[in-house]
Amino acid sequence: MSDAGATGAREFSRRAVSGRASRRTFFGVLALLFAASATATIVGCAAMSAMGEMPMPGGWAMSMAWLRMCGQTWPGVAASFLGMWGVMMVAMMLPSLAPTLWRYRLAVGRTGETRLAWLTVLVGVGYFCVWTLFGVVAFALGAVLAAVEMQLPALARVVPIAASGVVLSAGALQFTAWKARHLTCCREAPGRARTLPASAGVALQHGLRLGLHCSCRCAGLTAILFVIGVMDLRAMAVVTAAITIERFAPDGERIARVVGVAIVAAGLCLIVRGALVQ
């Protein structure tokens, strides 16, 4: 082998070793972040469960997450909810987001490792900013509905049936072209057939776009959390599994439809149970 060939082989080997080390470091950091957010979510949910729930007409109970306790202000309640929401979203979405972030790093091309890390952080910031805005809207709607239900017992009695309708609608959404389009956008590799520029603005924009498609794709599944229990760990685990599987399974659209069938069946069971309680 010529000297040039030997040098090229050594350089290729060095880059391969460096790439493997970078990949291990990247996914190691995200694993620690996931562990921390999952732990914080479990602790937060336990604290919320310790506060109990308020029994309501119609045989259901309202989560204290939507209510202002003695001595609290509404900005304080909102800040507490959004803090918990943000931690919960990191734990739920990071499993499906991590490979996408890695592909973004590959699409950016050659740049310094430190700069690449900050660009990746900006993608994550943009992504979770969209989910935070989703949480702001959800809290506002939840707080208003809770206040109205507290004042109107007749409305509170129909909440179980309305919740069943939300679950059925979420299941039906799994079969729509709208869902399929956003799922395709989420599954599409960033920078396919081209290299993304190593720009902070482009990184943030990429994260925002990804967050928008992901929040739309997961809208139905997320809505189920709110009607079943936004701090219910079992519901979180099931929704997280569904989000991740349909994102990475070879035939994501088929998996989404299978999930839709399961959701519709659950909605029908909730309707039957609600009718028996009534």
TrEMBL record:
It comes from the Bacteria. The lineage of its organism: Bacteria, Pseudomonadati, Pseudomonadota, Betaproteobacteria, Burkholderiales. InterPro entries: PpoB2-like. This is Metal-binding protein. The chain crosses the membrane at residues 25-52, 72-95, 116-148, 154-173, 218-243, 255-276. It comes from Paraburkholderia lacunae. It holds the Pfam family PpoB2. Keywords: Membrane, Transmembrane, Transmembrane helix.
